[in-house]
Design brief:
With about 375 residues, this protein is mainly β. It is built from 1 helix and 29 strands. Strands 1-29-27-26 form a 4-stranded antiparallel sheet, with no helix packed on it. A hairpin with a 2-residue loop joins strand 9 and strand 10.
C-alpha cells in the first residue's frame, strides 16, 4: 500500500503552477534532491524550478533557478542534472537549458542553429548522449520538429510525411524521451490518423531512421471514440523490451488508456490497458523500475506492471489525499520517481496543512513509498 512519506508545499509567493513538473536527482556524493517546476503565470517570465534536499524522509528547500518564460512546465532529470525548457522565451522562439548543482543558475540558452520566431523550442526536452534533445512543437504552423544536440553539432528531425493528408497542428515533438543507445521517443499527439482527427502518433528515432509506433487501423478509425485521443501526449521506455504510450482521451468514455508496445517488434499489436474509471488516465508517465510504470490521471495515480497488461497482476492506486482541496483534478499532472519513491505533482491543489486564503491553490508535491 502506498504511504505518504512527506509533502512539499509552495511557500514561495503568489500561487501559479507549482508542481506542474517534478523529478528526482541523484548526486555522486550520495545526496538526493527533488526538483519542482512552476511555469508561473501564462505569458510572463515568472517560470522557475525549485529544488529540495531529500534526507531521512524530509525535504528541505535548497535553491531556485532564475526566472524565464514558462520555465518548469516540463522537465527531465538524469543523474544530478535537470533538463528543462523555457518555450515562451523571446516571445515564443523558446530554448532549452541544462541545470547543474547547486541548481541556482541556468546554462546558456540552447536553441536551433536556425531558430524560428514561433518554434516553442524546449516545450519538451531531455538528455541526449552528451547534450540535449528538445521539441519545437509550434514550428511550421504547429506541425513541429525535434532538435538533437549531442554536442555543438545539430540534427533536425522534421515532421514526417504520412499517407493520410496532414494538417497544421500535429505538434510533432510535443513530447520527447531519450532512450538508451542514442534513441529518442517522440510524441505527436495532435496528428490525424486513418481519417480520425487528433488521434495522435508516436515515433522511435534510432539515430538513423524514424520508425512509427502505430496502432492498427482497427484501433484508430471513425466510430472508435478516440477523437482527440492524444496518443503520444506521454511516453516512456520501460526496461529494454517495452514502450508505453499514453492516450489520455482515448478508450471507453474517453477516460484514457495506455498502450504497451514490444520495443523489439514495433509492428506487433500493442497491449492496451483502459482507465479503471478515472478521467485522463495516461496524461503523465514515469518509469518506476524495469517492469513498472507510474501513470498519472486527473485526480489519481496508478502503478502498473506493464509485463502483465492487459490484465495487470499488480496495479497500485494512489488516490487523492484526504484533506486536499482546490483544483484537485490536477493531482497527478506530473509524476516521477526518486529511488523507489513516487513523486506526484499537484499544481493548484491545497493540502490540509497548507495555509488557506489568501494563499490558496498554491500547489503541492506528494512523496510516497510503495
Amino acid at each position: 500500500m502506498p504511504k505518504l512519506e512527506a509533502y512539499i508545499q509552495n511557500t514561495h509567493g503568489t500561487p501559479h503552477w507549482f508542481g506542474r513538473s517534478v523529478g528526482g536527482l541523484h548526486r555522486e556524493d550520495g545526496s538526493r534532491y527533488i526538483a519542482v517546476g512552476d511555469p508561473g503565470k501564462q505569458n510572463t517570465d515568472q517560470g522557475r524550478i525549485y529544488t529540495y534536499h531529500w534526507n531521512a524522509g524530509s525535504a528541505a528547500f535548497n535553491n531556485k533557478t532564475p526566472n524565464d518564460a514558462e520555465l518548469g512546465r516540463q522537465m527531465r532529470t538524469q543523474g544530478e542534472s535537470i533538463y528543462a525548457g523555457a518555450y515562451m522565451r523571446l516571445g515564443g522562439a523558446g530554448c532549452a537549458y541544462t541545470i547543474a548543482h547547486p541548481y541556482n543558475t541556468l546554462s546558456s540558452p540552447i536553441s536551433p542553429i536556425s531558430p524560428d520566431a514561433d518554434d516553442r523550442a524546449g516545450f519538451s526536452c531531455d538528455a541526449f548522449l552528451n547534450g540535449v534533445v528538445f521539441g519545437c512543437g509550434n514550428f511550421n504552423s504547429s506541425s513541429g520538429r525535434v532538435v538533437l544536440k549531442p554536442s555543438a553539432s545539430e540534427v533536425i528531425i522534421p515532421t514526417p510525411a504520412q499517407s493520410d493528408p496532414r494538417h497544421p497542428g500535429d505538434k510533432f515533438g510535443r513530447q520527447v524521451r531519450s532512450v538508451d543507445s542514442g534513441q529518442v521517443l517522440i510524441g505527436s499527439p495532435r496528428a490525424d490518423r486513418f481519417g480520425v482527427s487528433v488521434a495522435g502518433e508516436a515515433y522511435l528515432f534510432d539515430g538513423i531512421n524514424l520508425r512509427t509506433i502505430q496502432r492498427a487501423a482497427s484501433e484508430v478509425s471513425p466510430g472508435t471514440s478516440i477523437y482527440h485521443g492524444n496518443f503520444g501526449e506521454a511516453l516512456e521506455a520501460v526496461g529494454t523490451e517495452h514502450i508505453v504510450v499514453g492516450a489520455n482521451s482515448d478508450g471507453p468514455n474517453q477516460h484514457g488508456r495506455i498502450y504497451v508496445f514490444d520495443r523489439t517488434n514495433l509492428a506487433s499489436a500493442p497491449r492496451i490497458l483502459d482507465s479503471p474509471g478515472t478521467p485522463g488516465f495516461g496524461y503523465s508517465l514515469a518509469v518506476l523500475n524495469e517492469s513498472e510504470v507510474i501513470v498519472g490521471a486527473f485526480g489519481a495515480v496508478y502503478i502498473v506492471d506493464v509485463t502483465t497488461v492487459p490484465n495487470p497482476t499488480s496495479r497500485v492506486t494512489i488516490p487523492l489525499e484526504k484533506g486536499a482541496t482546490g483544483k484537485t483534478q490536477f493531482f497527478g499532472a506530473a509524476v516521477a520517481r526518486l529511488d523507489s519513491l513516487v513523486l506526484v505533482g499537484a499544481p493548484k491543489v491545497n493540502f490540509n496543512k497548507t495555509p488557506q486564503p489568501p494563499a490558496s491553490e498554491r500547489g503541492v508535491v506528494f512523496v510516497y513509498s510503495i
